[in-house]
Amino acid sequence: MIFISRKAKFFFILGLAAINLVLLTYFHLDGSLSASLAQLIPTNEWDSLVAPLLREVSTNKTRFWTTNTPLRHLEVEIPLSRIVPSENINETELFWDPRFTLAAYTNELSKFGDSKDIPTLPFHWADWADVTALNDKLKYRGNPRQITCKRLRLRIRGHPNPDYFCKDVDVLTDEEVYESGFLSREQMPQAVVYDHCKHEHQAYNDVRVFMAKSYVLTHLPKPYKVIIFNKNNERGVFEFIVDQERNPQQRLLYSDLTQNLISDSTVKEVDGEKKISFNHLNYFDKMAKSFPARRLSKEEDVHSLHNVIDSNNGTKMMSLGPELFSHSIQKVDNLIKELEAKKDKSEPELNFLNGMKESRKYNGTNEPTYFKMPLLNIQESRNIHNDWGWHYDWRFFNDMLFFHKRGWTNEQRIERTNIILERLLRNWVRFTEEKGIISWIMHGPLLSWYWNGLMFPYDVDIDVQMPISELVRLSENYNQTLVVENPEEGYGRFLIDIGSYIHNRDVSETGNHIDGRFIDVDSGIYIDITGLSKSSANLPSEYKDKQLVEKADNNADAEVYNDRRKHFYTLPQLQPLRYSMMNGEPVFIPNKVEERLRFEYETGLDKYEFNGWIFVPQLQLWVLKSNLMKILTDEETHKDETEDIETIVNSVKNLSSERIIKLLQSNDDILKEYFLSKDLAEWHMKEKNVLFDNNGKDRIDVLEDSERKQYYEELVGEISMRSPMRMCLYEYEKFERTAH
Question: Burial of 415 by CB count in 10 Å (0-12 exposed, 13-18 middle, 19+ buried)?
Answer without folding.
Answer: buried
